[in-house]
Amino acid sequence: MTALVLGGVALFSGCMKSGDNYASPQAATNNNTVNTTSNTINPVAKATVNYTLITMIPDPTINLQWNSGYITTTELLFNGTYVVGNMLKQIQFSTQTGQTMQLSGSMALGSVAVVPGSFDYGSFSLMLNQSSEAHALMLNGTYIIKNQKIPVQLIVDQQEELLSIGIKKPVITAQSYMATLFLNIGQIINGIDANTLSTAAVTNGTIFISATSNGALYQQILYNLNGLRGGIQVQFEALPVTSTSLNPIVAQSPVR
After folding, report:
1. Under a CB-based contact definition with an 8 Å cutoff, are residues 237 and 148 in contact?
2. From CA 243, how far away is CA 239, in angstroms rounded?
3. pLDDT level of residue 35 (50, 70, 90 thresholds)
4. Distance in angstroms (rounded) separating the CA atoms of residues 233 and 252
5. Residue 248 contacts residue 236 (beta carbons within 8 Å)
6. CB atoms near residue 5 (< 10 Å)
7. Residue 15: count of CB within 10 angstroms of its CB
C-alpha cells in the first residue's frame, strides 16, 4: 500500500479488496442530494477529473465474433457521498458531452470540475443516450453457421448509465485527476452467444437485436446493462504536477 500525498493530506492507495467497496448509497434513508454542473464552480478552487474509457472486446468464439461498435455519451458525472451527523448527504458534479465515439482501445471522454473535499464514497459514471444522428449503443458482429456468415447488429436507443464501482474514502484537492473506466463488452452481451442466435429472426440477411427486433435478446442486453450500474471497474489517480509516475486507487469488481 502506497501513501499518496495530496495537498498535504496523506491518502493511502493500493488495490482494494471487494470488501472495501461500499454498497450504493442510493437506497439510504435520510438522503439529500445536491446536483451541481461544472460551469457553476469557482475555477480557482476546483479539482479537474479527466475521464477515459478503455474498451475490452471479448475474444471471438468459433461461431460469433464482435467486431466494432460505438457509444453516444450525453453526460459525465462524479457522485460523492459524505456523512453530516446522522445524515447521509450526496453531491453530484456533471458535464454535458453529446459525443459519439467508437469502442476501440482508450478514449478520452472529457472532464468534470469537482469541489475539493474528503468524501465517504465516490463513483464515476457515463450517461448514454441516442442523439438525432446516432444510437446510444451499437455493436456489430458476425455469426457463422454452416459456413454462412450472418451480420449481427445490436442497437440500444434509450438512456443508460454506466456507473463505476465505488471508491472508498477519496480525498480530492484542487488538482487534476484521471478516472479510467474499463468497459468489458462481454458484460453487455452476456447470454448472447452462438446458441441463442441460432433461433434469432433474420431481417434482410442481418440479425438485428433492438427494441423492435428479437425482443428476448434485447431484454437480455437491458438486463446486463442494468447489472453494470455500480459494476464498472475504475482506476482513480492523481496526475502529478512534476512527475509522470501515478499512484492509482483501483476498485476491483465485487464478488457476484
Report:
1. no
2. 8
3. low
4. 6
5. yes
6. 11
7. 11
Residues 103, 77: Cα–Cα separation, whole Å? 20
Sign for the CA dihedral angle at 171, 177, 254, 217 comes to: positive
Per DSSP, 212 falls in state: T
> Considering only CA atoms, which of 120, 228, 227, 121 is closest in space to residue 166?
121
Supply the pTM of this predicted model: 0.75
Tens-place pLDDT, residues 57-104 = 878 777 888 889 999 999 999 999 887 777 888 889 999 999 999 998
Beta-sheet strands, E only, within the chain: 2-6, 9-13, 15-16, 31-37, 47-56, 64-84, 87-102, 106-114, 117-118, 121-128, 137-145, 148-156, 160-163, 167-168, 171-172, 176-184, 207-209, 233-238, 249-251
Cell matching residue 174: 484542487
**Cα torsion at 205, 207, 211, 213 (round to 10°)?**
60
- CA–CA separation, 247 and 35 (whole Å): 29
